[in-house]
Amino acid sequence: MKKIDRSKINEMSISLGSTIRQAMEVISRGGIGTVFIVDTQSRRFLGLMTDGDIRRAILKGWSLETKIELLERPQAKTAAIGMNVAEITKMFGETVRVIPILDQESKIVDIALYDQRLRLPVAEPSLAEKELAYVTDCIVSNWISSTGKYVSQFEALFADFCGSRHAVATSNGTTALHLALLALDIHQGDEVIVPSLTFIATANAVSYTGAKPVFVDSESTTWNIDPDLVAKAVTPRTKAIIPVHLYGHPADMDPILEIARRHDLAVIEDAAEAHGAGYKGKKVGSIGDIGIFSFYGNKIITTGEGGMIVTDNPDIAQRVRLLRDHGMSPSRRYWHPVLGYNYRLTNIQAAIGVAQVERIESILQAKLDIAQRYEKQLEGVAGIIRPPQAKWAQNVYWLYSILVEEEYGIGRDDLMAELNLMHIETRPFFLPVHTQPIYNTGQYLSVSQELASKGLSLPSSASLQKHEIDRVCKAIKDIHKKVENKIRVNRTS
Ligand SMILES: Cc1ncc(COP(=O)(O)O)c(C=O)c1O
């Protein structure tokens, strides 16, 4: 956000009695394409006009000598003195590029200008009044630890959202995975099949139990674990499969469930990145034996840090609750029949979670709208492969992610560097876990490795505005054109 010289505010202001001609003169002197209308005596802000508003008035037949009080003026967006930069930044839009900042007497004290150099983050949380109200309630009522009404409310709301019978909140997605594996009694000597192309937590949770994560390659169509290869990876030691719904697109669950049935294996869905994603009419997380979610700050909904386990199995839910709370018997205080953990979510975090679930549908809709705008604008850009959307799946586009092929002209890393210079943050795909120093299995998993080298995620926050998506797409197209021209010049010279 740019600021301007405050002493110039008066020079950029006119009264309602001024004419279109005077407004145009002020706009042309001011250099921000906008004139402010103020009360001559009190200097109170009354509205503003942009050069576009004036152009439209003239096209409607108004003369240069028309008084601007006769013209239609759009409702102006204003900020109040004391608002922070982030709050003001959110007010900018496709047509809102100038925001006057007013004091208590409605006088302009400063002007915020939209800056093309404004950094677009990949994913930032969408927090609103309800989150603040519920957190305030925790503080006012003194319920700030893991006991309190919001934890059970959050669990009930989230179970309902997923279409699962039980939900148990945990301190994060990784502890949710760990507890899910423990509840299934997975331990040293067991094997658990996981995709290699995932965040490392999927595999680490397996390692925490002493079991061995067995890495399987992904499908190039969905970017998720390849069911044919899952079947081949099953051994007598295999106890479970953890499909991951990567970047918001569901894994192909039916063949995975079929393999699990055939070999008597459990299925834990890692839906950390896919709240609300659909698979053949069901929500992810509710399809396997257990589903887990993350509510880390960049996820579809957030509690800062946080996680959830969902299941239809009451025994699993009960066991997870026991393990989450130091293994303490629910019927006898300080009596610990099993080795447990402190993996609880706090009431404050759950309060944020309740507010987030209450408006998850609008967050998901915003994500879908963002994806559709990207889809339209990136269609046909040479060398850009858009994210998967299988017929049987409802992708929730946690992160709108693309692949950069050779045809684009430069590689993924160079594109990321160029976008970074244009203040557009991107994120490379996860590095395949089987290649990480702590696992380093020596496997060659061609699809995962190729996706990891070509994939990047674009800005995808639910608050992202249309003009910001347009800015990202234009940047991707401009960079491609620049590279193409360079290649052409090199060929002809
Ligand atoms: C696929 C996947 N699984 C598990 C996790 C772990 O969740 P958390 O960060 O809440 O521990 C993440 C989080 O980033 C994830 O992306």
Q: Could you explain the architecture of this structure?
A:
The protein is an alpha/beta fold and 493 residues long. The protein has three domains: 2-113, CBS-domain, CATH 3.10.580; 129-358, Aspartate Aminotransferase, domain 2, CATH 3.40.640.10; 361-492, Aspartate Aminotransferase, domain 1, CATH 3.90.1150.10. It contains 15 helices and 21 strands. Strands 8-16-15-12-11-9-10 form a seven-stranded mixed β-sheet, sandwiched between helices. It starts with a strand and ends with a helix. Residues 172-174, 198-199, 201-202, 244, 270, 272-273, 294, 296, 307 line the site of pyridoxal-5'-phosphate.
In short:
This protein is an alpha/beta fold.
The CATH homology group name of the largest domain: Type I PLP-dependent aspartate aminotransferase-like (Major domain)
Q: Could you say what the CATH architecture of the largest domain is?
A: 3-Layer(aba) Sandwich
Helix content class: 25-40%
Number of domains as seen in the coordinates: 3
Strand order of the largest sheet: 8-16-15-12-11-9-10
User: Gap between N and C termini, in Å?
Assistant: 42 Å
Mean pLDDT: 95
Major beta-sheet overview: 7 strands, mixed
Provide a count of the helices. Answer: 15
The coarse silhouette is: globular
Round the Cα radius of gyration to an integer and report it: 27 Å
Bound molecules: pyridoxal-5'-phosphate
Measured by DSSP, the beta-strand proportion falls in: 15-25%
As residue ranges, the low-confidence spans are: none
The CATH topology assignment of the largest domain is Aspartate Aminotransferase, domain 2
User: Class of the largest domain in CATH?
Assistant: Alpha Beta
Task: Tell me the total number of β-strands.
Answer: 21
Structural class comes to alpha/beta
